[in-house]
Amino acid sequence: MNELSTQKQPALAEPVANRLFMALHGYFGNQFLDKFRTGQMQDGEDKGIKNARNVWATQLAEFDQNTLYRALRALRNSGASFAPSLPEFIQYCLAARKIEATKTQLMPTDSNYSEAARSHIAKIKAKHLMIKGNSLGALGTLCCQAVAAAGGDEIPVLRRFNEIVAGAK
After folding, report:
1. pLDDT (tens digit, 9 = 90+) per residue, 4-42?
2. Last residue of one domain, picked from the residues 106, 123, 138
3. I want to staple 92 with a disulfide (CB 3.0 to 4.6 A). Which of 60, 71, 108, 117 is the partner?
4. How far apart are the first and last CA of the chain?
5. Where does the pLDDT of residue 1 fall: very low under 50, low under 70, confident under 90, or very high at 90 and above?
6. Could you report the per-residue pLDDT of 58-74, keeping only the tens digit for each?
7. Spatial contact of 41 and 47, defined as CB atoms under 8 Å apart
8. By CB neighbour count within 10 A (0-12 exposed, 13-18 middle, 19+ buried), where does 110 fall?
9. Which long-range contacts (CB under 8 A, 24 or more apart) does 51-57 make?
10. What pTM value is reported for the model?
11. CA triplet 62, 71, 1: central angle to 5 degrees?
């Protein structure tokens, strides 16, 4: 379907599009809105701004709110001096989505831990299970290091380790 089609295309929910424009206005001031302003008012709103927001909402519909938030954060952190065009903002969204996908792929599950990492963790557990007191902190550190070396997320491992230690007391 081309962009000039009269058929209704999916779009961001109006409150999401409004918040996006509010954030961009907050970051860049009137420089952002002046790109679209026509001076023609309709229902108390500039027609150009309303039309731009609708176009942005339609073109950004493929992205979820988390991706839009991450794109806004990346834009804010970029130190950009000028408000982005729609194609530029889409590039921020695509980059944010790519990062999300990469993180999801790297998030370990029991089924995708490498055998080497499992073996390393098992050796550490076997060697240190009987350690008491402050040495348990060192064991937790070693477990986290093994998980990190395998490309995993240490937080869930550390939480599970703390549960095991709490249950052993």
Report:
1. 554 567 888 899 999 999 999 999 999 999 999 999 999
2. 106
3. 71
4. 64
5. very low
6. 999 999 999 999 999 99
7. yes
8. exposed
9. 53/17, 53/18, 53/21, 54/11, 54/17, 55/86, 56/12, 56/17, 56/20, 56/21, 56/86, 56/89, 57/11, 57/12, 57/14, 57/16, 57/17
10. 0.57
11. 20
> How is residue 145 written in tokens?
């290091």
Q: Is residue 99 located within the same domain as residue 120?
A: no
**Alpha carbons within 13 A on the beta-carbon side of 135:** 8
Give the three-class secondary structure for 45. Answer: strand
Closest CA to 60 of 21, 100, 31: 21
Nearest to 91 by CA among 78, 102, 104: 78
Q: Is residue 1 part of a domain?
A: no
pLDDT by residue (tens digit) across 122-165?
A: 766 666 554 444 555 666 666 666 766 666 666 676 677 677 76
Tokens of 93: 């969204």
Pairing of strands 45-46, 41-42: antiparallel
